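Lecture 7 notes. Example A: sequence first, then its structure tokens.
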Amino acid sequence: MISKTGVVGAGLMGRDIAGLLANAGYAVTLVDVDDDALDAARHYHERKLPDELQASGYTVSDRPADRITYATEYEGLADAEFVVEAVPERLDLKRDVMASLEAVLDSDVVVGTNTSSLTPGDIAAEMNHRDRVVLFHFANPAIHRDLVEIAGDDATDRALERATEIAEAIDREPIRLRREYRANGLSRLSASIKCAATWELLDADPAAIDVAATRIGFDRGPLELIDLIGLDVHLATIDNLAVTYGDRYEPPAEIREQMDAMVSDGRLGQKSGEGFFEWDGDECLIPEPEDPHDIQPILAALVNEAHRLVTDGIADPETVDEILQRGGDSEIGPFDVEEMFGAEPLREVLERRHDETGAAIYEPVF
């Protein structure tokens, strides 16, 4: 049993991961170089964390905030027995974090990476003990989505088992992927529907697309999802994925230009109050469209990506369905969608949209 844990990165994901660990009874040191980020995380843990936990069905364990300490130096993690990095999706930054951790941690301490667009192998490439690093990827928001994806082609069995134990201890469902791949499972499924939605923007406005998505059972529409994580983060993720997947997840050129301009103007989504939609705090203000857009191209892209995950050896169809159900708070998975709509009609939609757009996201693989 371990008692002391650490989290690097006090952003939205990092603060929630720290909160989950603390609520499970672990002592947590949350590290960030930004004092303001640490102050904001402390305020969140003290004032809002209990309500967030209760809203997700957790029993609040005394005062979890009392088990969290805050530090700007990595030396605060010297006695940690398990550490999670949750810093922005920049390979150079994540490698710097790993070098700093390796300088203070014992050689057998397992490090989980919450990366959504890189791999443990990418991140650990320059470390002396690369086999200690595992994928430990949460869905967003971490407290409200019952999933942690775990993988690591170079990780030891002990490291993978330790990560699985921690996920179970914080009451998240650990899903072991068969191999590591950029964007794991959930992020690739999410990227497919977000990319397809940007192509559908050529023919429809954001509200028409997202309302159609929610009416058939999506918890949020794909463009609201982009707003939620931030347009800047979304575009950085696309650029990371291009290293492995080329232009598969790239928006059409004119939409990419619009999104870059939105970022330059500070219209980042929820965190700035405006993106594809206006936001009132945590509430996305989506106007009622005159006519919802045809959602089949987005569903077809989702099913197509699910088949790619199976072909790439990441997971079997049942696990792919579970990833979306747990990570997307959905009653159905992509292969359920295929069964509902039929493989042949979905393939015809892909072929039609691929002929019309040339977009790689629509190129049929099943």
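Example B, a different protein, same format:
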Amino acid sequence: MNRYEVGVPPFAFVQLLESGVLDPDVVVRFRTIMAREGTDEATLIRRDVQAPLRWFREAYPELDVDQATLLGFAFAEQAQLTSFGPLSFPLVSAGSVAEIVELLTYVPLISTALSPQFHPGEHGLTVGLTGHTHDPALDCLIVTYGGVALLRLLDMLAGDVPTVTLHLTWPAPNLLAGHEDVLAGRLSFDAPMSFLHVPAETLNEVCRFSDPLAYRIAIADLQRALDQWSGTTSFSEKVRRLWEKDPGQSSRQWVADELSVSTSTLKRRLLEEGTTFRELRESFMRERAMLRLFDRSMTVSEIASDLGYSDLANFSHAFKRWTGRSPREFWQE
């Protein structure tokens, strides 16, 4: 298995296999794939190795967006407080909804397939969710899994929090029976981007098992682990992290200099990971622009400036190319 492969937490994957939710022949296919690659459930957990999402494509060769969404629901409904490796202890000791959501910062430690982008606004916190599998169906699977799992964890730890909503970009699957508890006012489809929204008044809701000291210690450990992980992560992730700190920097040369490589090496490494500088940049800019447009306290001009555009017309042209709508049309919806 390639260490840069996008995957899911090993314990969560094993819990799914043993849950009885999957058809027996699918479980057999997964175990055949693992045996071929010299691993099994116990080895995944012992070595703390992410289960590659390409296994899902192989186990479900006809996987489409509808099936992937339903599979994401089924996967998330098996989520337990023990499913998320190093995030499990801070989850239990979190003191508020805000502290639970903060843990999405450390998702790369357990799954490189899902990337969160945070945008706090006067009406609450919006967290964009982006899949990085280069496969539309698998992206739907991991985004659905991540979003629905978080809703379940919030219910476990903070009680019923119906004000936290999950929005997904694709149409609703035809068959959603059995998921009414999640759907009741908390899930919508055909959104302009996939995101979670937590209203400002919900962020301070108290969790059941609050332990402030344990949470602070766990967060410090997670931050050290994330700092170590950042040194060995993929080039795509390193580039995205540079833009998170300074979104206005669009120059290939600037990125290459920050990573201490040549522009040709940067190009080659991104191609090895199945993407290009332009694709990565446009994806990042589109997601960041839409997140900021959800915050009605920011003007379109302020958003353009945040993204490094000195000319509002250039930003508007780029946004319409990305989404088919102008920023003002999007902002006014």
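Note on Example B: The longest helix spans residues 136-158. Residues 66-213 form one domain.
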